[in-house]
């Protein structure tokens, strides 16, 4: 795992957007896995800026989102469809038919989940998956105790996640209880992963994910099994990492390291 610690959220977001732009510049028809939540907002804003000011092209890009709340229509302000449209898609030149987001309103979730997995495969698999982390260590909506081999399916949200996400709704009772989410196994098949976290409230989850044992109780810890993960953190989110001096040393020595390091 590469651990990149930035001084601020803005620096972290720029580093993340730069990694996405680098991929798109070398592979214009890349397949991106995208996340929602407040964490990637800065990176999306920066990608929009690069698109507008430097011509970053999304015309051949395909995207697959991680998850969606069950029961929310696409135009619900708290749906992940709405979030992605407002914060990224409406500002860039991605063809709408290249955008895939799990449906929260399908009448056949089992068939939809199987189709979603098939569509990812048919598009050649995900080149780069952007990920945030829940305060309980979840990735997408893979709550503690999710199988590390899990595939796209319905999950019941943990009380902690419902409480965390209540800030976006009028009242906690409005937060959906179920979500459709890519599984941990689905996520681990991405060729590379960009794991983002900011803020002190994520420090425990980040430390458990990067330095703790691999366990289904912290589904983000499964990323330790993946060969190509970059973790972009701001300083508060990195605050509980035991090896922080080593990560900083690696960052410092990176420019003179042999190619491929
Ligand atoms: C939700 C999403 C996750 C996201 C997490 C953290 O649970 N399903 O994909 O990583 O929230 O959200 P935030 O970035 O707002 O802290």
Describe this structure in words.
It is a single chain. With 261 residues, this protein is of the alpha/beta class. 33% of the residues lie in helices and 16% in strands. It is built from eight helices and ten strands. It has helices at 9-26, 41-54, 80-87, 109-122, 159-165, 184-188, 203-211, 244-253; strands at 2-6, 31-34, 62-65, 67-69, 99-100, 128-131, 153-156, 178-181, 192-197, 229-234. The strands form two sheets. It has a seven-stranded parallel beta sheet with strand order 1-10-9-6-2-3-5. It has a three-stranded antiparallel beta sheet with strand order 4-8-7. The longest helix is centred in the N-terminal third of the chain and has 18 residues, at 9-26. The mean pLDDT is 96.
Topology:
Elements: E1 2-6, H1 9-26, E2 31-34, H2 41-54, E3 62-65, E4 67-69, H3 80-87, E5 99-100, H4 109-122, E6 128-131, E7 153-156, H5 159-165, E8 178-181, H6 184-188, E9 192-197, H7 203-211, E10 229-234, H8 244-253
Parallel strand pairs: 1-10, 2-3, 2-6, 3-5, 6-9, 9-10
Antiparallel strand pairs: 4-8, 7-8
Helix pairs in contact: 1-2
The structure holds 2-amino-2-deoxy-6-O-phosphono-alpha-D-glucopyranose (GLP).
């Amino acid at each position: 795992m590469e651990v990149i610690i930035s001084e601020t959220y803005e620096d972290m977001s720029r580093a993340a957007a730069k990694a996405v732009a680098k991929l798109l510049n070398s592979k214009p028809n890349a397949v991106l896995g995208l996340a929602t939540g407040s964490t990637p907002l800065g990176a999306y804003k920066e990608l929009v800026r690069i698109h507008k000011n430097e011509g970053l092209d999304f015309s051949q890009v395909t995207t697959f989102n991680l998850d969606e709340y069950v029961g929310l229509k696409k135009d619900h302000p708290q749906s992940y469809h709405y979030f992605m449209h407002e914060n990224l898609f409406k500002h860039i030149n991605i063809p709408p038919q290249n955008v895939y987001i799990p449906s929260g309103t399908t009448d056949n979730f089992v068939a939809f989940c199987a189709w979603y997995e098939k569509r990812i495969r048919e598009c050649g698999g995900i080149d780069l998956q952007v990920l945030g982390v829940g305060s309980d260590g979840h990735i997408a909506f893979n709550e503690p105790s999710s199988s590390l081999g899990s595939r796209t399916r319905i999950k019941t949200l943990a009380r902690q996640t419902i409480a965390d996400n209540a800030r976006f709704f009028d009242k906690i009772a409005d937060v959906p209880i179920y979500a459709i989410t890519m599984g941990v196994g689905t996520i681990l098949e991405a060729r590379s992963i960009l794991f983002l976290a900011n803020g002190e409230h994520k420090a425990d989850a980040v430390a458990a994910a990067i330095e703790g044992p691999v366990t289904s109780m912290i589904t983000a810890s499964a990323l330790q099994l993946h060969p190509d993960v970059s973790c972009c953190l701001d300083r508060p989110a990195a605050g509980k990492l035991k090896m922080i001096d080593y990560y900083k040393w690696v960052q410092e020595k990176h420019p003179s390291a042999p190619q491929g390091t």
